[in-house]
Amino acid sequence: MAENPTAAMLVIGDEILSGRTRDANMHFLAGELTKHGITLKEVRVVSDDHDVIVGAVQALSGSFETVFTSGGIGPTHDDITAEAIADAFGVPCGIRDDARALLQAHYDARGQELNEARLRMARIPDGASLIENPVSTAPGFTLQNVHVMAGVPSVFQAMVASVLPSLTGGQPLLSQSLDIPRGEGDIAGPLGDLAKAHPEVSIGSYPYQRDGVYGANIVVRSSDGAAIDKVITALAAAFPEAR
Amino acid sequence: MAENPTAAMLVIGDEILSGRTRDANMHFLAGELTKHGITLKEVRVVSDDHDVIVGAVQALSGSFETVFTSGGIGPTHDDITAEAIADAFGVPCGIRDDARALLQAHYDARGQELNEARLRMARIPDGASLIENPVSTAPGFTLQNVHVMAGVPSVFQAMVASVLPSLTGGQPLLSQSLDIPRGEGDIAGPLGDLAKAHPEVSIGSYPYQRDGVYGANIVVRSSDGAAIDKVITALAAAFPEAR
């Protein structure tokens, strides 16, 4: 099948690595990219450390067509993503007028002060374009092939919705699955033969144990629906107990 | 505070990157390591691709004291982790007698055949030691500083429990949190000052929006409980509405 565009994600935040927060953005983005025909190839989760973020951004933006980041663009002292992205590309980072105007209007409307801390959310690397935030106004931004978004899931999701239509996707990846209530060891032989005979699809086997029963969900993926149908039919014939 | 030992995690599996499966092992491991006094510094999620796994294992095992992997050690054609770990360290990988004996006993007891596919789960890189799997027998393994474990969460968790007592931890990281029902922009100034005055703790701010109310959970972390108490007391005095 034709190669789809590739993407990577960088999750920034000590709270994920300490186990305090369970990340939700990776799973959301993965699903959205798959629907859009973009292949998510790698995710990295790193701590709130300037040099580590810079290194990860440089590595991922050099290896994949598009990079998405989440986290670290709020008003507090541990929000250091904007400067790190700027440094990764060797550009300055400062308060930008259009971002400041968005925030000013937002806080004016609520009778709140655009103080020094809130103004930090208008720090944008030179040359970046803003990503709209319909949830809480403070914008994300796109610099070269890196889309920088908030970590709060509702805001992250809104920003993904803003960015995704601007990206060229490939063929959406389609999939069908069969649940075979037998141990993977019984399935693996015929499955491997089928995978070898059908390089035009990718076949994954995801084992489970439920109420003492061993089984596996077999997922067949391709951008070619007819190719998937053929393999699923062959699988169902080989394992009549599949459902 | 004293530096704790560092760790990284490598999650291997197309199903995570396609959005089909939401990974649960990262969050579990993060919490267990924090309790054990080991600092999780980075997580990478990569696809079922031999060269990519080899590269990630080499990068992470060279940068951190301990590496944990999840996924790709089952019996099917897409389970390629054992060979990739072996290649990362330049050692051969083959069926090993002690692993085969474990599997033979397991399948004999159930009247099932230890067929060619199941035997793949006895592939162990030369020089590795086995990690016990009390859930479904097929072992994980430890090669140098890399612990290779299953992706099925119940098995992953059991293997972590087998490995963790053998690792030297530092001081367990303690934490206390305060919920301040005000926007981060109101909190950020005093919080930044407090962070600067107390480098012996780390202070994180995790904003939320609930029923239209903006607030933030402020988490103070350190291995020194008295230092945390002092900062929490100062925070509560600065924000009387905190709870």
Helix and strand arrangement:
Two copies of one chain form a homodimer.
Chain A: E1 6-12, H1 14-17, H2 25-36, E2 39-46, H3 50-63, E3 66-70, H4 81-89, E4 93-95, H5 97-109, H6 116-119, E5 123-125, E6 129-131, E7 140-143, E8 146-149, H7 153-163, E9 174-180, H8 184-197, E10 202-210, E11 213-222, H9 225-238
Parallel strand pairs in A: 1-2, 1-3, 3-8
Antiparallel strand pairs in A: 4-5, 6-7, 7-8, 9-11, 10-11
Helix pairs in contact in A: 2-7, 3-4
Contiguous runs where pLDDT drops below 50 for at least 5 residues of chain A = none
Query: Spatial order of the strands in the main sheet of chain A?
Result: 2-1-3-8-7-6
Number of domains of chain A: 2
Largest sheet of chain A: 6 strands, mixed
Describe the fold and architecture.
Two copies of one chain form a homodimer. Chain A has 243 residues and is an alpha/beta fold. The first copy, chain A, has two domains: 161 residues, Molybdenum Cofactor Biosythetic Enzyme, Chain A, CATH 3.40.980; 65 residues, Alpha-Beta Plaits. In chain A, 39% of the residues lie in helices and 26% in strands. Chain A is built from nine helices and eleven strands. Chain A has a six-stranded mixed beta sheet, with helices on both faces. Chain A has a three-stranded antiparallel beta sheet with strand order 9-11-10. In chain A, helix 2 packs parallel to helix 7 and helix 3 crosses helix 4. The longest helix of chain A has 14 residues. The model of chain A has no long low-confidence stretch (mean pLDDT 93). Chains A and B meet through helix 1, helix 2, strand 2, helix 6 and helix 8 of A and helix 1, helix 2, strand 2, helix 6 and helix 8 of B. Strand 2 of chain A pairs antiparallel with strand 2 of chain B, so a sheet runs across the interface.
